[in-house]
Amino acid sequence: MARSVLVTGGNRGIGLAVAQAFAAQGDAVAITYRSGEPPSGFLAVACDVTDSAQVAAAFAEIAEKQGPVEVLVANAGITRDTLLMRMSDDDFSDVLDANLTGAFRVIRAAAKAMVRARSGRIILMSSVVALTGSAGQVNYAASKAGMVGMARSLARELGSRSITVNVVAPGFIETDMTAELTDERKSAILEQIPLASLGTPEDVANTIIFLSSPAARYITGAVVPVDGGLGMGH
User: Fold this and answer.
1) Does residue 127 sit within a domain?
2) Domain membership flag for residue 234
3) Measured between alpha carbons, how far is 166 from 182 in angstroms, rounded to an integer?
């Protein structure tokens, strides 16, 4: 049975692969995007997750056109990588606002209908650096680590309504961002990954499809790594 799915930041990279995977199994898929031309085949809604009014408007449009959101993938995010001594207050707070508070805003908007329906799937897109840390990414790692506490609190808060809340923590995935790495940097990264390869957006999408499926009905509050073993032990 087709469900109403929303993938925030679903216009490129991992988010787009996730949206395509849901569409391939027959779900009605909406994506949010901030700029550029969105991909065809989805209900594309312009929305900046740092703006509560835009989030409310996006959810109203999605509910009207494909029904209340039943599966939410909070994927939208930004990076402002730089070393601590060069990181401005805005570099830090903007990343927290987009990645962590942005996830809070869309989850809050989705939860109302899920609570009424006594059903729902919420999946937050974190990162391996949330648990391992990463030099030059104090802001990004903090925002992604915050998702773990948020998800586990929500899992306890919403569990009695049959709503699951889980976190996916990708490692190094083949995207436009990793394509810009030098061969030397890529080799250094691969040496740290037990599976000795980068992941694909589809690897992440497959995990999210599972967590949103009936097969995962008894999984909530989990942090699921998709990182080739890079973050083991954390």
Assistant:
1) yes
2) no
3) 33
Which amino acids are annotated catalytic? 140
Single pTM value for the model: 0.96
Q: What pLDDT digit, counting tens, does each position of 198-221 carry?
A: 999 999 999 999 999 999 999 999
Domain CATH for 209: 3.40.50.720
- Sheet strands side by side (includes 223-226): 43-46, 28-33, 4-7, 71-74, 120-125, 163-170, 223-226
97 to 67, 145, 159: CA distances (angstroms) = 27, 14, 26
The whole domain housing 176 covers 4-225
The mean pLDDT value for 7-20 works out to: 96
Burial of residue 94 (CB within 10 Å: 0-12, 13-18, 19+) is: middle
Specify the number of domains making up the chain. Answer: 1
